[in-house]
TrEMBL record:
The lineage of its organism: Bacteria, Pseudomonadati, Bacteroidota, Sphingobacteriia, Sphingobacteriales. Residues 42-175 form the NADPH-dependent FMN reductase-like domain. GO terms for molecular function: FMN binding; oxidoreductase activity. This is NAD(P)H-dependent FMN reductase. InterPro entries: Flavoprotein-like_sf, FMN_Rdtase-like_dom, NAD(P)H-dep_reductase. Gene3D superfamilies: 3.40.50.360. Signal peptide: none annotated. GO terms for cellular component: cytosol. It holds the Pfam family FMN_red. It comes from the Bacteria.
Length: 212
């Protein structure tokens, strides 16, 4: 499946349609039908800033979601190729991006942890989405959104903006979205949340993700 996705994007092979079952996706092309199993769930730390609070929140979500069962993996955008703009957009594909694309292709659900950059979500997050194989990477998959900010609004606008991207990609977006303001005050040195009210809201979303 991964090789087909790269081939299709590089050589303009026509993807006629996609078909999703509970744990698999099939691509219908001019050369036949190719099916892959959706094996995992991804939590995307939506910035390439080193040692970001978004990554700490992503790891906290991983910890709490795995208590509910299921496999959750954190993908930090610090892992993107440094030259991704010149190597993996507009039909180009690189070996460095291949392991990331494989994880995205095999994911059935996503949690996006989205920091506020200049009143919206980070440009690198959109670059990541644009670099992923279209439409197989995200179409009809599930997404939960978490806004993070150093200010007092928890990236409300950025989450709204990214919801539009998810809707365009035909993702099923969990209605309950969480906004974590003043994030530096929410975490202790071990990456654990310290505010009881914030933990309550986060746990409510985690319960919804588990049932989603």
């Amino acid at each position: 499946m991964l090789k087909l996705v790269f081939l299709a994007n590089t050589h303009n092979i026509r993807l006629r349609s996609l078909s999703y079952e509970k744990n698999s996706v099939s691509l219908y092309t001019e050369f036949g039908v190719f099916t892959t199993t959706l094996r995992m769930n991804l939590i995307i730390a939506g910035t390439n800033r080193e040692d970001s609070n978004s990554l700490k929140i992503a790891k906290y979500y991983q910890q709490e979601l795995e208590k509910k069962g299921g496999d959750w993996e954190v993908l930090s955008l610090t892992d993107l190729p440094s030259n991704i703009i010149s190597t993996d957009l507009y039909g180009q594909r690189s070996e460095a991006f291949a392991p990331i694309q494989e994880k995205v292709s095999e994911a059935k659900s996503f949690v996006f942890v989205i920091p506020e950059y200049n009143g919206s979500f980070p440009g690198v997050l959109k670059t990541f989405v644009d670099a992923c194989a279209f439409p197989a990477s995200f179409y009809h998959k599930k997404a939960a959104l978490v806004g993070v900010s150093s200010g007092k609004y928890g990236n409300i606008r950025g989450v709204d903006h990214f919801t539009g991207v998810c809707n365009y990609l035909r993702m099923h977006v969990l209605p309950l979205k969480i906004h974590i303001p003043l994030v530096i005050q929410e975490l202790d040195e071990d990456g654990q949340m310290v505010d009881d009210l914030t933990k309550k809201f986060v746990q409510e979303q985690i319960e919804e993700i588990h049932r989603f």
